[in-house]
Amino acid sequence: MSNTPLNVNEDEIAKFEQVASQWWDLSGDFKPLHQINPLRVQFICQHLALHQKDDNTTSGLFNKKVIDVGCGGGILSESLAKLGAEVTGIDMGSEPLNVAKLHALESNLSINYQKITAEEKATESSESFDVVTCMEMLEHVPDPASVVNACAQLVKPGGLVFFSTLNKSIKSYLLAILAAEKLFKLVPDGTHDHDKFIRPSQLITWAEAVDLKCIDASGIHYNPITENHKLIDSLDVNYILCCRKL
After folding, report:
1. Contact assessment for residue 90 and residue 121, using Cβ atoms and an 8 Å cutoff
2. Separation CA 131–CA 102 (nearest Å)
3. How far is the C-alpha of 160 from the C-alpha of 133, rounded, in Å?
4. How does strand 112-115 pair with strand 129-135?
5. Which label site among 81, 110, 115, 206 has the fewest CB atoms less than 10 Å from its CB?
6. 46 and 200 in contact (C-beta within 8 Å)?
7. In this predicted structure, what is the pLDDT of residue 1?
8. Reported pTM
């Protein structure tokens, strides 16, 4: 066993453990995640299609090895599995993983869920995956650059890595914390810490330092009043990146 401290924030884990039972409640604390999930899947599929066009292949996610880093209760993992991907989901929260395993069983989906850090998994399964996803997870760990590095290790050369997180901007504080947590109560109070939000330039710098070339970026716009959600050019609040392993 390594004596290296795990890149885990126990308070963050505890926060998600407490609300794990609500993960698949479409009107509960994770409603916004369910609503933006189709946008994430769309972004992933679009870039996979472009990627495969370059490689003269057209199988989409079918039989692709995908790892969902920070999978939580499995919302994205299940969507990718339904499209034919061979999905591994990793997280350090026991209760969210239990919920994910049970829901996959109920949905008749085969997903390999594991309680392991991204860094440990990268050591165990280096360059094993065609696609790596890491959604809304980087802002919840002590050392996000370490997770970016682990994702780079996990993906095969030429493979794709997708990150989504929150920009460190005044607008993100107003919308993601004041509006979403305090005013509209869309997510539990204390879900986000603005100090841990990450500017796109910072995330791209971390990615490029580990041979991940950012090939596209898009903002995710969510209107809590109309519940309208769409991909936009502005990266002011939520954003998603597609990177290719050199």
Report:
1. yes
2. 24
3. 9
4. unpaired
5. 110
6. no
7. 43
8. 0.93
pLDDT tens sequence across 88-128: 999 999 999 999 999 999 999 999 999 999 999 999 999 99
- The pLDDT-based confidence of 172 (bands split at 50, 70, 90) is confident
Task: Report in angstroms the alpha-carbon separations of 206 from 149, 201, 236.
Answer: 8, 9, 19
Average pLDDT score over the chain: 91
Residue with tokens 């280096």: 126
Q: Which residues contact 53 (CB under 8 A, 6 or more apart)?
A: none
Other CB atoms within 10 Å distance of the CB of residue 53: 10
Parallel, antiparallel or unpaired: strands 228-232 and 212-223:
antiparallel
Separation CA 242–CA 215 (nearest Å): 6
Are the C-beta atoms of residues 41 and 80 closer than 8 Å to each other?
A: yes
Residues present in the chain in total:
246
What is the tens place of the pLDDT at every residue in 6-44? 999 999 999 999 999 999 999 988 988 999 999 999 999
- pLDDT tops 80 at residue 54: no
